[in-house]
Amino acid sequence: MEIFHALFLGFSEIFRIKALFYCFVGVFIGTLIGVLPGIGPIGTMSLLLPITYKAPPLLAIVLLAGIYYGAMYGGSTTSILVNIPGEAASVVTCLDGYQMARKGRAGPALGIAAFGSFIAGTIGLVGLMLIAPPLASIALRFGPPEYFSLMCVGLIILIYLASGSVIRALMMAAFGIILGCIGVDPETGFTRFVFGIPDLMDGIGMAPFVMGLFGISEVFLNIEQSLKGRSIFTTKVKGLFPNWQDWKDSIMPISRGSILGFLLGILPGGGAVISSFVSYAVEKKISRHPEKFGTGTIEGVAAPESANNSATAGAFIPLLTLGIPPNVVMALLLGVFIIHGVVPGPRLISDNPNIFWGLVASMYVGNIMLLILNLPLIGLWVQLLRVPYKILFPLILLFCIIGAYSINNSTFDIAVMLVFGVTGYLMRKYKYEGAPMVLAFVLGPMFENSLRQSLLLSDGSFSIFFTRPIAAGGMITTILLLIGSIIPSIRRRKEMIPMEEKN
Fold it and tell me: Domain segments of the chain: what residues?
């Protein structure tokens, strides 16, 4: 009954005109960004970060969270109609969704994607409500060594799951920690890495940093690539409501995808992308007709679309209960919490119950809004795909510049954004991943403080990380993952040396 009372508090916060407006704007922009290929929720949240500074904490978080899970809904539209994923988590949906559209079944594919997303999002929220409060009470016993070890695990898992070179991902994480340490040392009061530039004494602003790294770099990358040859599926979309057989084939994939996505979303480095791939693989493995996957089977749409939406709810658990973001989107939200003076973690539910339960309630409301938005407005989303990129990209650049300047009315922030825009573009060109760097940048100050406090408690001895059970478990996991990720690359390099000598 206590949970229902708390949820009632959340709905009382969200059922206000201003809160509903922020929720609607968030999910609408999220759907729009999911539909338009090549932008993504990270870049969009980065661009809109400045406008949330003057909003109340709850409304700012509701807006950005809506963009995140809204993009998971919208990404399926382009995957099914154009065979181009509007968002990275919808890559798998292309395999069967587009084939269904080619067979004249675009309507049921879009319908099951929307309904599956709604069901999975609701299941994920129930899991968030049930798991977060008890986990927060356990986390109250954590000290600096436990937090340090958990942050190490989070960073290493993200590096371990990096699609490119592990060494490069480690370099990016180290670079992110250094960037997070720029400014005044909180212990000694001395400046670090400022190179005589007064504007750097307060550190690098998070908004210009992420706007450049994701927003500006995305524009540069898309301008370079040829955007021709993208054909819209022109057949009229009809029959959006799946029939009985479609539901019969999809209900178990939706259920399995929801649970699997939620559990993988909780893990650091997991998130919607990995959840959708794993869910699709599981369905293909257990199917009686695995050969049908990739030819237009509805299970291949239902499972990944459910998994990526459920994962968004799971990803909030470590952020809200431990204060540790499991992925780069949650790192951005952590920055928003900190900017508004709210500390996410074990005490969030007890100290700011209106924010925690208001966010949960907004996600219930947002899921309903998304279901209403996605089905009737399919025609509108298809028309948006025709927006010329030569119009879209200059507007994005303009919004970036205005947003960066408006934070502190400083041209230095514009310069920072442009520097990291070029940096992000070069990183993506040469296969250096930005996610480890952003996560390390956000966690850097907390990482440093936890390390210092732990060493103060132990009189400078690192044994404190191995004598306390939870901290020891985290550090051993970190070491094993680090060794497991580096050894394969060393082996590949050794195998390449004899081949190079022969040549």
Answer: 2-502
